[in-house]
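Narrative summary of target 7.
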Amino acid sequence: MAFLVIVLNFYANSWGDKLVEKTDHFFKDENNADVFRNYRWPVFFGMITIIGFAVTQFPDTIIRRPHPIFWRVVLGLLLSYATFMTVVLLCSRDEARNIFKIFHPSFGHQLPERSYADDCRVFTPENPVSSMYNIYDAIYDVHFIAHLAGWWFKMMIIRDTKIAWIISGSFELIEISFRHWLPNFWECWWDHMFLDLFGCNMFGIILGAWTIKYAGVSRINWIYKKPSGNKVHKDCNILV
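Modeled conformation, tokenized:
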């Protein structure tokens, strides 16, 4: 591990200035100054050090495919993400937004809230883009991909199809209950039913179940079943 840190520090000192110069065009923004220009790559190499430590020192997980080292890298990334989010959550709102300028100078500004229930028509024949433009617009939205990927990973964490479906339905009820707080919780009926519950959620759960099977990971039984030969006792345990 010490050798890895020495190597990383050597290359960081050798390549630091060159990396800043070569990536200046990517982080250039005429309307926002690049305040993290001299700190971006040191933070990156710090994250590489955490991942290197994870690869060499973290224990293997219960998942063996495609390789245990791959999952150690994932744990290192998750540790880096958790550390970054801890820093963000301990800052004020404006300071937390400014931290995101490390990814690009144009970040760090308040985004406008969007309502997904302004027009709930399924057919929009007058629209030149598509006769079903509202559905088209909802699908080609970044939240659609995030929703699908989120439920893919949730299923790999929960590892129980029944519990995943219960949580999936509960999330939709929570969105309906708290949409008076956040405008983007307002959604059309077909968005809740066919894009969320029986769309992204369902296909995410299916992909997660397939990934679990492919990786050779055992399922988790979240329902306690007390060993008993009495059928009535078994049914009561299932309900509990």
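Residues 236-240 have pLDDT under 50 and may be disordered.
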